[in-house]
Backbone:
């Protein structure tokens, strides 16, 4: 599974509409409205590298109101939640 974090700049008055359309794309698991340099952050999870182009270049970038995107490809995942769930398998609380 490949994970990409996509920073999305939008037209100021289009943030909710863009977020809704991005969320509807296959491969997008979450979209966050954030403060900082970007207006939205999308989490993209796909099986094949080529699918990133389908979701990002052919999907997100072509949504009306999207001004610019920046994509960060994840190398590894570090998460206490994932580790705790893995070690808790089969254990009763």
Residues:
């Amino acid at each position: 599974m490949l994970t990409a974090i996509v920073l999305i700049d939008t037209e100021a008055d289009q943030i909710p509409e863009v977020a809704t359309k991005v969320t509807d794309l296959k491969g997008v698991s979450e979209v966050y409205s954030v403060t900082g340099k970007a207006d939205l952050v999308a989490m993209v999870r796909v099986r094949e590298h080529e699918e990133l182009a389908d979701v990002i270049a052919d999907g997100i970038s072509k949504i009306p109101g999207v001004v610019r995107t920046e994509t960060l490809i994840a190398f590894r995942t570090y998460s206490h939640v994932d580790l705790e769930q893995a070690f808790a398998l089969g254990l009763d609380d």
Observations:
- Strands lie at 2-10, 28-33, 40-46, 66-73.
